[in-house]
Each structure stands twice: as structure tokens, then as C-alpha cells.
Amino acid sequence: MVTRYGRDNGFGWQLNEVIGAQLVSVPMSLPIRNANHAFYTFMGSLGGVFLALFVILNLMLYVLIVRPVRRSLPRPTGSAWVGRAAREGGPGIA
Hints:
This protein is mainly alpha-helical.
């Protein structure tokens, strides 16, 4: 072809001249499957990170705040403790 048309000017094609068209078909099943796999992997790992953070924060809340506050409060002794609060004019538990 180079001997017939030469090395310059695109083998004799002129500017704005339509010579032909090529159609290319690309199967989309493999890229879509890869994209879905990447999406589910990312969302699963993101959910795992949030779940781990939730558990860690709840444990920290319990260890650093709830347990020390529970230790510092007086222990109720059942109905006698509720009755004493009601006798002293405090709010009773009905």
C-alpha cells in the first residue's frame, strides 16, 4: 500500500473525506463482572471497618465511662431501698 499510495497524506485521503467506517463490538460482561466484584469487595470492607469501629467505641464507652460510674454509685438493695426513698419523700418507683 505504501508503494501504491505513498508515505504522506494518509495514503491519498483528502481532508474531510469519508473513506470508510469500522464497527467494533466489545463484550461488556467481563468489565461489568469485574466492576461488581470490586464494588462488593469495597462495600464489604467498608462495612467491616464501621462494624469494628462500632464495637471498639462501645467497649471504650463501657470501660472508660459506664463501669467507673457504676462503681461510684451506691448499690440498691431491692425493695427496701425503694421504700426508703419513698419514706423520705423522694420519688418512689411504682
